[in-house]
Amino acid sequence: MIKEIFNEYSIMITDEQERMLQVYYELLMEWNKKINLTAITEYRDVIVKHFVDSALILKSERFMGRYSASVLDIGTGAGFPGIVLAILCPKYTFTLVDSLMKRIEFLHIIKEELELHHVSLYHGRAEDLGHQQKFRNQFDFVISRAVAELPVLLEYSIPFVKKKGYFISYKGKKYKEEVELSHRALQELESEIIEIEEHSLAKGKRFLIFIENHCLTDERYPRKAGKAKKKPLY
Fold first, then answer.
1. What does pTM read for this prediction?
2. Is the predicted pLDDT of residue 154 greater than 90, yes or no?
């Protein structure tokens, strides 16, 4: 059934990928009884609103047009979009970051069960990790879904992106308002919105905002924990 639902959105997956996504779903529902991972629990809703939504980026030539790439998922939560993309893009390497240790523990179970050797997991805040040499300006793509408004996300994310790499933000119907608020953040972080893709999802739309990083990030950013939310770069 997972394969059929993906086909409805013109995303082709293999039988093995379908099996892995099914195992992921079952473990997600099992662990959701212990810790709050998702409010969405009905089978088709999980497949569409979490799995397919995460995978819409596979329709982008800008994301898929490489033999290999390094991808960082900031605020991955229960693994969306990072785990889904790791299942569907085995040639890319994935680093998943979350500030809640219980979620990272869950993701370790998923990683081991599905043998996702190209996935690394880190517990921490973007504001702290963004200043560490092994993370700073090291990734071809940084992705984030349902974490914060765009000006805040830019400060969290751009410091991880390589020069000429991309930050890709998953946004909903209010994306235009967030883009309007992002002019100063884009200028301060020397980055630029290159493209906004629109995709149908269930009865709504998903917008993928592609932002190119033009240089190595100023050492002032990201600011200390909490500053980006309290005083966004408006």
1. 0.96
2. yes
